[in-house]
Structure to design on (754 residues):
């Protein structure tokens, strides 16, 4: 098993406006993407990887001259890896509204000549899938062998089957949910309030003020981070371990290692992540709800996906998107007699497990991709 | 079953310095308290109620001329109620460092003549219990029939048996834990960071600037509130219900009812709660860890409590202080052959259940207090 090696992002510009679910349009935009492996002659071996909140098109490989620049799913994707680039042509794409290269809030709004900021049009999972479909067309890929994603990426994978049923064979939805629960929305909302009420946010137009709402971003990331880890994993890793030998009896200084870890995560995040992107992406999570247009009936929503095959994967300690939420998806598929494989992986790491190299998890994906490879010949 | 009726807070001043676990002292302080019922001739029927983060000495009854001023445990305490004021003399006391009348960060530091602010000495559960014990002495109560509390209040109840074994007969610890988990500390830390990084916090000396770090307090309360409710209760109460008929597609405005509810809770809280108190009380939660002085062995910590009887109560959906944490307490007691009753109440409301009127829960408390009443005669 090897790495895909040195990779370089590419980009495509789209001048045809993209109509959005909100009624607005994205007038003119660029999508940044990467590819690994080789598209076969009949263009049947393409696999699209959709990213979650804090990720990008950089899914595998490393960048020239940059140590520790592995893509976020590098453990999964490469020659001989579960998603084998000797067999598949893998595409990672950065969604619009994100802050890793594709058109987003920090770019110029062609309508005004100023930075978009808070005026960047609200994106939904369906909008992203529409933009991804255009990119696939541009790359000459009429039908994907599979679309795969974890968390918010899993929602995009699901949305592909509903929006472009003729353009995707297999959907692999990992650690995801058919919609957010009230508790999920609540965590997103607190994180957003931390950002929006940071005086440096300036209603989302902080770029013009030469500041970044770092306080809000830090708190948002700390909240998020707690929900990505299982209670048990956090206990095993940090427990009540102190940073110093003795308690300092301070309300403002760090006492426990878990505090140090969270502050560090928050600080790092606030250095590179865009505040408007955080709002946009958490809102896309909130809005995703394919059952909504079908009177809340998820099975009716998936009736359109009858020609597809699904793999749904959940993790036992994921309390953000629990196995019960994945089972809702499986049930809706089974109700439609759609072929679905379901794996509930007993893993201690919580939601983050989808990014980690668990042998049982990776074996499930390896088998499933081997089966797809056999199907496409 | 009736109300204890109109009540009035009382106060006691203590000029003898209180040595604190941090090594500092509380030089001079006042404790505000309330009592309900009548102390019997042999002073054997006193029950101390300890409060949690956002509560006070005002445990039962109402204030003259104030509608909706019921004490926070009014459903439990009164004539004919589970904690029957026809039989017991019940005392509620506001802890030092709180913001409901007892000496706290918003009061004058006698050493400087200025407002304490962030200089208010760090309090621990043990310090509060020491102060409570002094108050009991002042009230002529040598031995409590029982000490009861939920959440952080339950920690104080536990600490009473360890610190003043001769001064309390029964300990009733509800919805509590022998210490905070890493995840619990993490949630506290995020809330504290939201407050401390609010520019209006001014290092805890905001009083001098005529401002209040309301942004931070709002976010802190929103985070806390999510952890007080069960996922299921939040889903049942709010689900994905929208505030308006249609989605507004906004990252900054309210879309879902749960957002509206959380913002309202945050706004209310920021109007009356003190930011330094929030830091102090969450730190007292973090620090509580009776096993720490016994090489992490909780059973050894409780060896001193052999003469006591315990009631431990947990709630099935409480994920902040889960039943598993209560069972750790029970196990440590059983290991010492200490008499303990344990009730795990199947309740949907999460951590907040300890404040609610659940018949199974209240029946357990009613029986237990009836037994105490029989014992003291």
């Amino acid at each position: 098993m090897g790495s895909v090696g040195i990779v370089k992002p590419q980009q495509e510009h789209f001048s045809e406006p993209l109509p959005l679910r909100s009624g607005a349009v994205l007038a003119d935009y660029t999508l940044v993407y990467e590819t690994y492996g080789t598209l076969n002659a009949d263009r049947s071996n393409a696999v699209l990887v959709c990213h979650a909140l804090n990720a990008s098109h950089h899914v595998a490989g490393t960048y020239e001259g940059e140590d520790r620049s592995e893509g976020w799913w590098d453990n999964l994707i490469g020659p001989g890896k579960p998603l084998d680039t000797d067999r598949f042509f893998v595409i990672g794409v950065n969604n619009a509204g994100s802050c890793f290269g594709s058109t987003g809030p920090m770019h110029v709004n062609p309508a005004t000549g100023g930075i978009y900021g808070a005026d960047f049009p609200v994106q939904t999972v369906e909008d992203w899938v529409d933009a991804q479909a255009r990119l696939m067309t541009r790359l000459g890929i009429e039908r994907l062998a599979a679309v795969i994603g974890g968390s918010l990426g899993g929602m995009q994978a699901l949305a592909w089957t509903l929006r472009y049923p003729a353009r995707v064979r297999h959907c692999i939805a990992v650690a995801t949910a058919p919609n957010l629960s009230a508790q999920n929305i609540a965590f997103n909302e607190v994180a957003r309030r931390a950002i929006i009420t940071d005086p440096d946010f300036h209603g989302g137009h902080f770029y013009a003020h030469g500041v970044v709402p770092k306080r809000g971003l830090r708190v948002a990331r700390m909240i998020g981070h707690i929900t990505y880890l299982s209670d048990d994993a956090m206990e095993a890793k940090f427990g009540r371990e102190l940073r110093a030998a003795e308690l300092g009896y301070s309300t403002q200084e760090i006492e426990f290692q878990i505090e140090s870890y969270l502050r560090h995560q928050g600080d790092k995040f606030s250095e590179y992540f865009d505040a408007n992107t955080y709002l946009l992406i958490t809102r896309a999570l909130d809005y995703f709800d394919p059952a909504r247009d079908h009177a809340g009936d998820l099975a009716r929503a998936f009736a359109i996906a009858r020609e597809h095959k699904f793999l749904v994967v959940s993790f036992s300690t994921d309390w953000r998107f629990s196995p019960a939420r994945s089972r809702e998806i499986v049930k809706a598929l089974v109700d439609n007699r759609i072929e679905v494989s379901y794996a509930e992986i007993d893993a201690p790491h919580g939601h983050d497990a989808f990014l980690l190299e668990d042998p049982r998890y990776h074996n499930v994906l390896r088998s499933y991709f081997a089966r797809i490879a056999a199907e496409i010949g």
About this structure: The CA atoms of residues 164 and 359 of chain B lie 32 Å apart. Chain B touches chain A through 59 residues (CB under 8 Å). Chain B has a mean pLDDT of 97. The longest helix of chain B spans residues 359-376.
